[in-house]
Specification:
The protein is an alpha/beta fold. 42% of the residues lie in helices and 13% in strands. The protein has a single domain, classed as Aldolase class I (TIM Barrel, Alpha-Beta Barrel), CATH 3.20.20.70.
């Protein structure tokens, strides 16, 4: 096991900062505590594929290879943005990067704000040498654009990390629950538009597990973002994660009330796809196996992200992570075979999903 269960809060020896200690707490809590949303589900279990006893393709015909923002990936599975900034985060990032390279998957890094403040933490994020051939995504809280971070800083991050795109996360509820969180979200869309126009690299916008409503998805694409990850509810709940960090019982009660908050991932995805038909959509939040991945692709995602299960596997080691990814990809491959889809793009054309209430997609 990577993390010492007795280490609750401490200042990381390498960076010596509160941000670093928060990152390690986030890792520990995500690995050891129950951080699942409660009272809201991703929605993938509400859908089942119509099995095709006669798929009319060979299993060997099934290919997972696809595209993400102009680059090739060997499968439409994305390692969602998670961590960086501490020694423990570095170990996790290196394991994730080795898995990304081995399986040809795109990989997101955790929020890189600390890197702007403390350049010496670069090695904890800098995994390009371990994953030279996959799309690598840097990450920042979008709210940082309201707090002095501009195009130059974003360019600097992409250059330092040799990253292909910048992911901005929208996390108003998480910031509101954090002590001294950054809650100045006013006027952010215009700043995102300015960044998209000037960065010279794709900007992706995601939530962190409460979903993005379809009208906001449309406004983000109008602002120039290259892709939106709806990052819906039903998986890791960041109000639950923050609740585990709280010592004040009143704030912990408030956080607990939001365990069921958010737009279920499947619902957010279906609405986003209908509102933005030709745009690049990523689905994440509560995706837990390769069959969920196949469902998300069929419901309109171009790529599908997973965070919590992969960080837990990575904490157990390279082998556990490799096995987890291998299982997910094999589940996806067999699901595609059993619905007669030999290509990822065929899923939306050939696969049939039926909802629990009887309606077909
Ligand atoms: C340990 C951990 C750290 C995370 N840190 C970030 C982050 O820095 N930036 C970000 O955009 N999302 C972050 N997330 C959110 C994930 O990218 C994802 O949106 C969310 O966990 C829902 O996906 P899941 O249900 O598969 O975990 C983090 C998730 C985990 C588990």
């Amino acid at each position: 096991m990577l993390l010492n269960a007795t280490v609750k809060t401490r200042t990381d020896t390498k960076t010596g900062s509160r941000t670093a200690s928060r990152k390690d707490e986030h890792l520990r809590i995500n690995i050891e505590e129950d951080v699942a949303a409660k009272g809201v589900e991703s929605g993938f279990d509400d859908w089942r594929f119509v099995h095709r006893a006669l798929p009319e393709i060979d299993l060997d015909d099934v290919q997972l290879r696809s595209h993400l923002l102009g680059g090739h990936v060997d499968a439409p599975l994305l390692i969602s943005c998670m961590t960086g900034g501490t020694e423990q985060a570095q170990t996790i990032n290196e394991r994730l990067a080795r898995a990304a390279q081995a399986h040809g998957l795109a990989m997101g890094l955790g929020s890189c704000r600390v890197l702007l403040e403390q350049p010496d933490v670069l090695p904890t994020f800098d995994v390009r040498a371990l994953a030279p051939d996959v799309p690598l995504l840097a990450n920042l809280g979008a709210v940082q654009l309201n707090l002095g971070v501009g195009i130059d800083e974003c360019r600097h991050l992409l250059r330092a990390l040799r990253a292909d795109a910048l992911v901005l996360h929208l996390n108003p509820l998480q910031e509101a629950l954090q002590t001294s969180g950054n809650t100045a979200f006013g006027g952010l869309l215009a700043r995102i538009a300015t960044l998209c126009a000037g960065l010279g690299a794709p900007v992706i916008v995601k939530e962190v597990g409460w979903g993005i409503a379809d009208d906001i998805v449309v406004r983000l694409f109008d602002a120039g973002v290259a892709a939106v990850d709806v990052a819906g509810a039903g998986g890791t709940s960041w109000s639950e994660v923050e609740r585990h960090r709280m010592t004040d019982p009143v704030r912990a009660r408030v956080a607990g009330s939001f365990a069921g908050w958010g737009i279920p991932t499947a619902e957010a995805l279906i609405r986003a796809r209908s509102a933005a038909p030709g745009s690049v959509l990523i689905a994440s939040g509560g995706v837990r196996d390769g069959i969920d991945v196949a469902k998300a692709l069929t419901l309109g995602a171009d790529s599908v992200g997973i965070a919590g299960p992969l960080v837990r596997a990575a904490a157990a080691g390279d082998e556990a992570l490799d096995e987890t990814v291998t299982v997910i990809l094999e589940e996806l491959r067999l699901a595609m075979f059993c619905v007669g889809a030999s290509r990822v793009a065929d899923l939306q054309r050939d696969a049939h999903l039926v909802h629990r209430d009887g309606r077909a997609l």
